Amino acid sequence: MNNIQTEILNDIRSAKQSIKVAVSWLTDTQIIDELFLQATQGKKVQVIVSGDEWNIIEFERFDKLQNKGAIVNKKGAKEFNQIGFMHTKFMVVDDQIAREGSYNFTKNAQYQDNHFNRTTNAEILLKQFEEILSKSVNFFDDIENPEEIRDNLSMLENEGAIPEEKLHRLAELKLQKSEEKVVLQQKQIQEAEEAKRKAEEQSKKDKEAKEKIEAEQKMKEQEATYKPKETKTPVSQVPPTSYGK
Fold this sequence. Notes:
Elements: H1 4-13, E1 18-23, H2 29-40, E2 44-50, H3 59-67, E3 71-75, E4 89-93, E5 97-101, E6 116-119, H4 122-134, E7 137-138, H5 146-158, H6 166-226
Parallel strand pairs: 1-2, 2-3
Antiparallel strand pairs: 1-4, 3-7, 4-5, 5-6
Helix pairs in contact: 1-2, 2-3
């Protein structure tokens, strides 16, 4: 684990007037939150990231940062292997303190072998920043369904993935979801078939019970119809049981 994040945070906290950040990816919540704090204190915060959807992971924090008056823009292609992708990684504080290198401002960058060192090229980086800024657009332009994108990519980042692995890991995730969908559909089919079987069994039992009741009722009716009637001898024909003496 490197200590680059700590160095970046210390430089940001030392700002008296302005902070300019141009990085391919920015999902490190501690860095974004510190930029937000500096913006609330009146510092001029300007951030430019690449067009990669990986940056959408923290779009809600970017929105809050913009609402505090900060500039949050994006520039270039959406994939790191496309022409025009912004591979830039540097930061300038108060137009004097400058850092540049290979460090990405991401959640997992602390565990990678990168560098982000102090440099004396502040003036050159400032000109470069202004040039990038002039060609950038608002971060939220042309973003649809950010919640869905955020959920998919943050899942990968939480598993330790880095932006360069996005396409491969998304393909794996898509395949996994497809397989899970098939399993779910098969389960639903099995449950439907089982429910149908139980319903048919119950229907058969109900039919048999109904037929039994009807048969018993019919038998009773038949017995009542064909049962011999008892005949009683008329009183006048009954012989006396005794005679007087």
